[in-house]
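Look over this today:
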Amino acid sequence: QVQLVESGGGLVQAGESLRLSCAASGSISINVMGWYRQAPGKQRELVALITSGGSTNDADSVKGRFTISRDNAKNTVYLQMNSLKPEDTAVYYCAAGHGSRWYFQVEVWGQGTLVTVSS
């Protein structure tokens, strides 16, 4: 069973940056990790994913601002968020599972970390 522990959320002003981290532990048999987010009153949406081989995919709304990366030796995935906007405010969830750059079958969720961007 894989467990995911997130860190790095908080309150920032528009235009600032944050970095989220997610460490995976346990019996690891996954090849895709990523980040989803859920804003109040909205559905959870994929923000970015990365495969064990380093292929990435991200949402159009964050292209050019967010970067996902992965340290396979530490079983940790990061989400560097720059030029944050108020509409980025959400609970961000780390996810792990199987798939490819184009498909993500989530098997484990993190507990979520709140990111609040003030205008």
Remarks:
- Residues 1 and 27 are 5 Å apart (CA to CA).
